Amino acid sequence: MTVRIDDVDRKILSELQRDASQSLDEIARKVGSSKTPVWNRIRKLRQGGVIGRQTVILDAESLGFEACFFVLIRTSEHDAVWQASFLEALQNRPEVQEAHRLAGDIDYILKVRVKNARAYDVFYQALISEVRVHNVTALLSMEEIKSTTMLPLED
């Protein structure tokens, strides 16, 4: 189902990205509409797959997850069986916040959030025991400068 998105939809989506806990009344006021049309638009956007699941964003450091590693993986294996095994290993590891398959010299990049370097080593040892990889490079993030889930919807 293709959903047509107009300027009002973009304003609604921007507000939801900024703070999805806002009431319909607040969103309607901010986008210059009333509650029922805003609700109908949100429902249409959900049904069309534009809006996915809703969640909250937790502060990792306040919960003790002080280390963020970007893990660069090279593999010499690209067959379907290996890829399925790799995907399963990543899905079973809650430390992996993001995983991307790349073009270029590096095959995959993972964003891994753990409590400390020792916890990263436990993650690393478990991963390489589950799937064969050619080369792994871990880069420790010293400071998060920007992190957002928001898309640039408005011009």
TrEMBL record:
Signal peptide: none annotated. One of its GO terms (molecular function) is sequence-specific DNA binding. Keywords: DNA-binding, Transcription, Transcription regulation. One of its GO terms (cellular component) is cytosol. Pfam families: AsnC_trans_reg, HTH_AsnC-type. Residues 5-66 form the HTH asnC-type domain. GO terms for biological process: regulation of DNA-templated transcription; response to amino acid. Coiled coil: none annotated. This is Lrp/AsnC family transcriptional regulator. It comes from Pontibaca salina.
